[in-house]
Write a structure and sequence with these properties.
The protein has about 210 residues and is of the alpha/beta class. The chain has one domain (about 10-190): 3-Layer(aba) Sandwich (Rossmann fold). Helix content is about 45%, strand content about 20%. It contains eight helices and nine strands. The protein has helices at about 20-30, 60-65, 85-95, 105-115, 130-135, 145-155, 170-185, 195-210; strands spanning about 10-15, 35, 40, 55, 70-75, 80-85, 100, 120-125, 165-170. The strands form two sheets. The protein has a five-stranded parallel beta sheet with strand order 2-7-1-8-9, sandwiched between helices. The chain has a four-stranded mixed beta sheet with strand order 4-3-6-5. Strand 5 and strand 6 form a beta hairpin. Helix 1 crosses helix 7 and helix 5 (about 130-135) packs antiparallel against helix 6 (about 145-155). The longest helix is centred in the last third of the chain and has 16 residues, at about 170-185. The radius of gyration is 20 Å and the shape is globular. The mean pLDDT is about 95. It binds guanosine-5'-monophosphate.
C-alpha cells in the first residue's frame, strides 16, 4: 500500500450549515480523521467542554502564544481571538492523519498561504430559506440574534469563491460520504504520490527495459 502523508482539510460555513454535525458524523464513520481543537478567548457556552470543544484562554495567554509562534493561524472574530495550535496539527500530519480544521474564512486564507496542498471546503445549506428555518428552529436564540447570524452569512457568502469545494448539507449521511470522497480523491493527486510513482517507474525500468 502506498504511503501518503496527511492532508490538511479546512471546513468553513455559515452558522446553521451543520458543520459540527457533519464533522462528528465523518469521524464516527472513518477513523483516519483528526480534529484540531482551537484556542479562543470567548466565554465558554453551556455546551462547551474545555479542552474538547476549545481551549479557553485569556487574551494575555492567547497573545503570549501568538508571540511564541504557537499558532498555525489565528483570527479575530466577533471581538475574540480564535486560533489553531500548531504542534498538534503538525504532529498528526507527519503521522499521516488527515486533520480537520473547523475555522472561519480569514483563518482559511492564512492556512492556504502556508499549506498550498490544503483543501478548502465550504459547507452550505440547500437554500437561504432552509438556513433561516434551521437557525430559527434551534430555539436557543432571540429573533435579533438569528437576524445577526443571517446577516453574517451574507458577508461570509462573498468568500465562497476562494474555496476549492462547496458541499451542500441537505442529508447528513449523503453530505458526509461526499466529503469523505472528496478528501480521498485529493490523496490520489500526482503531486502527493510523486515518490511512489517515481519508485514504480524506476522499478519497471530496471526489470523490463530491453537491453
Ligand atoms: P464559535 O464561537 O461559534 O464557536 O465560533 C465562531 C467562528 O470561529 C466559527 O466560524 C468557527 O469556525 C471559527 N473558529 C473556531 N476556531 C477557529 C480557529 O482556530 N481559527 C479561526 N480562524 N477560526 C476559528
Amino acid at each position: 500500500m502506498m504511503k501518503t502523508k496527511g492532508l490538511l482539510v479546512v471546513i468553513s460555513g455559515f452558522s446553521g450549515a451543520g458543520k459540527g454535525s457533519l464533522i462528528r458524523e465523518l469521524r464516527k464513520r472513518y477513523d483516519n480523521y483528526r480534529l484540531s481543537v482551537s484556542a479562543t478567548t470567548r466565554q465558554p457556552r453551556t455546551v462547551d467542554i474545555p479542552g474538547e470543544t476549545y481551549f479557553f484562554l485569556t487574551r494575555d495567554e492567547f497573545e503570549k502564544m501568538i508571540s511564541g509562534n504557537g499558532f498555525l493561524e489565528y483570527a479575530q472574530y466577533n471581538n475574540n481571538y480564535y486560533g489553531t495550535p500548531r504542534a498538534y496539527v503538525e504532529q498528526q500530519l507527519q503521522e499521516g492523519r488527515d486533520v480537520l480544521l473547523e475555522i472561519e474564512v480569514q483563518g482559511a486564507m492564512k492556512v492556504r498561504e502556508q499549506f498550498p496542498d490544503a483543501m478548502l471546503i465550504f459547507i452550505v445549506p440547500p437554500s437561504a430559506e432552509i438556513l433561516e428555518k434551521r437557525l430559527t428552529g434551534r430555539g436557543t436564540e432571540t429573533e435579533e440574534q438569528v437576524r445577526a447570524r443571517l446577516r453574517l452569512a451574507v458577508e461570509e457568502s462573498r468568500q465562497m469563491p476562494e474555496y476549492d469545494y462547496i458541499v451542500i448539507n441537505d442529508d447528513l449521511g449523503k453530505a458526509c460520504e461526499e466529503l469523505h470522497t472528496l478528501i480521498d480523491g485529493q490523496h490520489r493527486r500526482y503531486a502527493l504520490n510523486r515518490e511512489f510513482a517515481e519508485q514504480l517507474q524506476e522499478d519497471l525500468y530496471r526489470r523490463f527495459k530491453e537491453e
